[in-house]
Amino acid sequence: xxxxxxxxxxxxxxxxxxxxxxxxxxxxxxxxxxxxxxxxxxxxxxxxxxxxxxxxxxxxxxxxxxxxxxxxxxxxxxx
Length: 79
Fold this sequence. Notes:
Distance between the termini: 22 Å
Strand order of the largest sheet: 1-2-3-5-4
Largest sheet: 5 strands, mixed, barrel
Strand content: over 45%
Number of helices: 0
Shape: globular
């Protein structure tokens, strides 16, 4: 299991999220305006207010940048 520290956590804003149960993915913009893919079921959500809540457009989101198969992506931390 990978370990992260609070120094690894970045802030971004959700720009799109597909909440259908079979999808649950989206894109966020980081502080530099770069778009990053995220999947809601990829771990994290340590600080979410409730596990039943899903990210929505314009939510501020905390994430960790990771290397994915197709380039950088975001692992959700809290929103």
